[in-house]
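Researcher: I'm preparing a figure for a lab meeting and need a structural model of a single chain. I don't have an experimental structure, so a prediction will have to do for now. The sequence is pasted below. Please return the structure as tokens so I can convert it later.
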Amino acid sequence: MTAELVFESRLSYHMMRQEGTVELDPVIALQLELTGGPKIYASDSFMINHAAWSMTIRRHKPGILLPTELPGWVNYTADAGKSQCVIDIHQSSERFASLLDMFKGGHASEITVVVEGLADSADYSKKWDTAAHASMPAKSICFEFPLPQSEA
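Model: Understood. Here is the structure written out token by token.
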């Protein structure tokens, strides 16, 4: 019941937030386009591939993220005829800093998220029971960044 979803990042933001005098941990926010993977349908038969996809990458302080913990969750909401899928990812401080440096150099060429919780359909598509489970776990995530081209 796992599926591989492949995205391209369209826009990326580094958000530094403050509430009063307290600085909150920074996040990387991405707008994504689902470019590969199975056709996925929600409980109401809406094709989730056409939803507005985004990702939030949060930095965890050392010692909070256990090595066996899942990297994140995929969440689905439908409101006023608009469907959104938000991927919430938690990364170690070191990996967050590395990803931030990579995103400062440009957009990821491909982001692959392996999710669990999609049922197979007879037509080779997948069904996400969004009525019963608005969230599903992300088992793994992979970011690909193009290497700089050497000058000839």
